[in-house]
Amino acid sequence: MIKKENSSLQPYNTFGIDVKADWLLTIETVDELREILQDESLKEESKLILGGGSNILFTQPVKGVVLLNRLKGIEIKKEDEEHIYVQVGAGEVWHQFVMWAVEKGFGGIENLSLIPGSVGAGPMQNIGAYGVELKDSFHELEAMNLSTLEIQKFTSADCKFGYRESVFKNELKNQFFITSVSFRLTKHPQLNTSYGAISQELAARCPFSYGKRGEQRRHQHSSKQITRP
User: 65 and 132, same structural domain?
Assistant: First the structure.
């Protein structure tokens, strides 16, 4: 755990706003998170959870504690003939996880390239792009209850996903710290090219096939080209 007092948040938000936090604590393990939440000296302090810093605009210094989520790791938990189940640390960079899946030939999230932020932030707003949403490949997540310090599992139904919505933006807002997210990815990608710009980009760039994995990489690259300004 890294603990800094009166620390600048400029490196941790995509707008690059230079505001200071009373306390900045970098969380690298679940045990560190629990230790911080049990710290009597910090118990009464307000707490802000920060991932990639891409969905926040700081306008003034942050009073209290900023918890910087740096829980890492990508682990295949189980698999069958059709799917793999991957558990990803909530502090992983979302786009890097997408690239990992594409390189491995696992399908389901290639349309979601270049969405900024961390893996843990994805379920909070059910991120989506080009006809695909996170909920389509979501399996479950684990999160620590900030009051009881217990780790709870949430299924898709528990998360109450909607359009850029989840239970964590509504009735459970500010009550949980997401520690990991698990995905059900396919070993036989069925590419979703229904979004108009993707099919046009694919046709314009290359009208012939490169095989299954090549098609997936080409599809993911097209999503990147459309996303970039």
Answer: no
